[in-house]
Amino acid sequence: MEAIGQITRALDQVATLPATLALRREQIKLQVALISPLIHVRGYAAPETKVATEKAKFLIEEAEKLGERVEDPLLLFTVLYGFAIANYLRMNGDALRALATQFLALAQKQAEAVPVMIGHRVMGHALLLTGDILKSRAHYDEALKLYNLRPPDLTKFQGLCAETNS
After folding, report:
1. Do 76 and 56 touch, CB atoms closer than 8 A?
2. Is the predicted pLDDT of residue 162 greater than 60, yes or no?
3. Residue 102 CB: number of other CB atoms within 10 A?
4. Structure pTM?
5. Which of 150, 19, 110 is closest to 80 using CA atoms?
6. What mean pLDDT do residues 120-128 have?
7. What is the rounded average pLDDT of the residues 50-57?
8. Domain ranges of the chain
9. C-alpha angle 11-57-38 in degrees, rounded to nearest 5
């Protein structure tokens, strides 16, 4: 609860300052940072978590429209993962499948092992939820294969999966 309050106060203060590149970057980091404590306190599918995730996505998209690159590509993964798991919990297979496709394509483009592994897991969830069991199994197998090649140090990816924050 305290983290939510502290981050919210920081975001409120940032909103009062003139917009600059550095400030937008900090605002994006803070907005994404708000997602994880909301997940833990309120839940993945809670309205507050959804609003925070949507706001983070909006800020990232706005920065990209201005030609600004987000310094940490894991921020977008965190946002997409939040949307994906919320849709999984809502049993919204079509939305989950679209998000899983986006997540996995971005992860493969970045060539970062943990997001690719998680992307396959999320795609496995999406395909299973939509009834494509064989393709689902292939993605689960790929996620396990990537994990078993070299179990990742998830500390770098704490914002990506709320499960790693516990």
Report:
1. no
2. no
3. 16
4. 0.82
5. 110
6. 96
7. 95
8. 1-71, 73-166
9. 55
Instruction: Tell me the CA distances in angstroms from 116 to 18, 95, 110, 160, one per residue in order.
Output: 37, 19, 9, 12
Q: What is the DSSP letter of 17?
A: S
Alpha carbons 77 and 72: distance in angstroms, whole number: 10
Write the secondary structure of 112-130 as one string of H (helix), E (strand) and C (coil). Answer: CHHHHHHHHHHHHHHHHHC
Closest by Cα among 12, 52, 46 to 31: 52
Say what the pLDDT of residue 153 is.
67
Separation of CA 129 from chain center? 19
pLDDT digits (tens, 9 = 90+) for 3-44: 999 999 999 999 999 988 889 999 999 999 999 999 999 998
How far is residue 9 from each of residues 6, 34, 106, measured CA to CA in Å? 5, 11, 32
Give the DSSP letter of residue 130: T
pLDDT above 70: residue 160: no
Say what the pLDDT of residue 71 is. 79
Q: Which two tokens stand for residue 2?
A: 């305290």
